[in-house]
Amino acid sequence: MLIGVPKEIKDHEFRVGLTPSSVREITHHGHAVLMQTGAGHEIGLDDHHYQAAGARIAAAAEEIYAEAQLIVKVKEPQAHECRMLRADQVIFTYLHLAPDPEQTRLLVESGCVAIAYETVTDARGRLPLLAPMSEVAGRMSIQAGAHFLERTQGGRGVLLGGVPGVPPGHVVILGGGVVGSNAARMALGLGARVTILDKSMARLAELDNLFCGRVVTLPATMDAIEQQVLEADLVIGAVLVPGAGAPRLITRQMVADMRRGAVIVDVAIDQGGCTETGHPTTHSHPTFVVDEVVHYCVANMPGGVARTSTFALNNATLPFVLTLAAKGYRRAMLEDPHLRAGLNVYRGHVTYPAVAQDLGYTHLPAERALAA
After folding, report:
1. Is 125 within a domain?
2. What pLDDT, in 10s, does the model give residues 123-178?
3. Fewer CB within 10 Å of terminal CB in the chain, N or C?
4. Which one from 31, 49, 96, 170 is the annotated catalytic residue?
5. What are phi and psi for residue 33, nearest 5 degrees?
6. Is 96 one of the annotated active-site residues of the chain?
7. 270 is a catalytic site residue
């Protein structure tokens, strides 16, 4: 199979779909890789590294979309890229379709087979291709929040760790999954006071054990969310409903009542965000202010540490790329229900139920689509 890797074109997105090591593994198994020139240059992965691993270099993305059977990316295809996709061509990347009706429409119209990293599952019901970037984003959320809490950045002027005689900052984390637990780890490392809210009591018990009682754990009721958000210096939005839009847990009124100069880092923004006042931002212009509360809503946070993120992502995606290349997409997904869970759009149909429900499409189950 010919696998194509275009250069990412989203604002300040320097990750790349395959590393040279991944290319070497793929070509070792008898497949071919076509890389766009400069795809990994910004993170120290140059064309000669890919050529040494067995890849061919293409001058432009158009060549890759015209030739490749499988497109491997990192971020969702932009409108220009969607229009280059061919019927029955496979694209394997993050999609986040629920809050993005325009991308969904273009993918449906293209007739392509779109498999989303973020909805592939494993035997324990986890999201193994989302987890690496969730780990990165969770850790970055505290770095970003600590920075924008500085008064020169518009924040309250609070040092998260405090100093002797001055209490530490209060970090409130909504969601105790991969993002939330990694955010808590970093916040505790800085010496902050940390509260995690989650709707699962079992997960709260796990977190209490994990952090040896050093974090406060609370059930995510509206009363508890409101009380904690209003007392917070830094709020991390770490909620996730796989494939669907994030629930809006922080209301406009809560934002209006928050401490002046408090910071919200909404890691859930790529699924629509968990605050009513949020909207996606970029690394070029990462923040905006509503009611004197700083909002950081960068939709591709891990792109800020693109080299680390690229290698972490490849560790997780490479086995699936090899399976798709070896078996073809239909057989690969029919035989593996966890990979099949990643199928979001198939030849003009929406196959992921949450996306269909959120955007008003008729849902065609993936099993039926692939078996037809």
Report:
1. no
2. 998 999 999 999 999 999 999 999 999 999 999 999 999 999 999 999 999 999 99
3. C
4. 96
5. -130, 130
6. yes
7. yes
